[in-house]
Amino acid sequence: xxxxxxxxxxxxxxxxxxxxxxxxxxxxxxxxxxxxxxxxxxxxxxxxxxxxxxxxxxxxxxxxxxxxxxxxxxxxxxxxxxxxxxxxxxxxxxxxxxxxxxxxxxxxxxxxxxxxxxxxxxxxxxxxxxxxxxxxxxxxxxxxxxxxxxxxxxxxxxxxxxxxxxxxxxxxxxxxxxxxxxxxxxxxxxxxxxxxxxxxxxxxxxxxxxxxxxxxxxxxxxxxxxxxxxxxxxxxxxxxxxxxxxxxxxxxxxxxxxxxxxx
Length: 263
Ligand code: SF4
Known about the structure:
Blueprint: E1 9-19, E2 27-32, E3 53-57, E4 60-64, E5 66-69, H1 70-77, H2 81-87, E6 90-94, H3 102-114, E7 118-123, H4 129-135, E8 141-145, H5 151-158, H6 163-174, E9 179-185, H7 193-205, E10 211-216, H8 222-227, H9 242-253, E11 258-261
Parallel strand pairs: 2-6, 6-7, 7-8, 8-9, 9-10, 10-11
Antiparallel strand pairs: 1-2, 1-5, 3-4
Helix pairs in contact: 1-3, 3-4, 7-9
This protein binds iron/sulfur cluster.
Iron/sulfur cluster binds near residues 39, 42, 47, 48 and 124.
C-alpha cells in the first residue's frame, strides 16, 4: 500500500537535468503537460494542451507528451542525486501547470522528499485550493507567478481573469509555505514601473513573502509556434533591455522586498 503512490501516472513532455534555475542548487525540472492559461508570450506552447501532439523540430515530427509513472520519473531524477546533495538542489515541477495533475504531482514530490531532495513547483495556482493543499506537505518552495493585478489586462493576455490566482496566493502564503512571487516582464503587457510596483506591493502584503523575481520576456520559444503551426502573436515585441529591467527592479525594491532579475 505504501508503495502505491509510485505507480500513479501523469503526463509530461520533458525532463531537464542540471538546471540552476527554478529553485536552489542543481535541479532536475520535470515539465507537465496541460495548462489552464494561454499566455501570449508562453515559451512552452507545446505544454498548453493536455493532449499529446506533434511538433516539427528541425524539420522532423516530434511527439510531445508521454504518460509515465512516478517511479519512472523518479528513477531518472535520482540519476543526479550526487549533485543535489552537494548543491542543496533537487526536483522542480514545471509545465504547463503541474497543479492540473495534483495526484501525480503530489506523489512525485512525496517520492522526492522520501529520498531527501529539496522540492519546488513553478505554478500559476489557477486551480481550486483543495488541489493545491494536496501538494503542500511535500513542498519546500512554491514559485508562484503573478502576472498582472488588472484582471481585464490579465484576461486579454492570458485568456483568464486573475481573481482566483490572487486569492490562492494569499491562501498559500497563509499556510506558512515558503513562497516566492515571480513576474514575467512582458513589454506592452506589464513593463511599466506602475504595473510592476503594484504587483510588488501585493506580494509584500502576502504573509512571509520576502522575495520577488522579475523574469524578462524572451523569444526563445517562438520557433515552437511555427512547429505547432500556430501564430506567435508577440513577434514584433522586443525583449526588455537590461537598463529597463534595472529600473523595474529598483521600483519593486521600494516595497522592501528582495528583488532579483531572473529566476
Ligand atoms: S501559465 Fe506558463 S505554461 Fe501556461 S500558458 Fe502561461 S506561460 Fe505558458
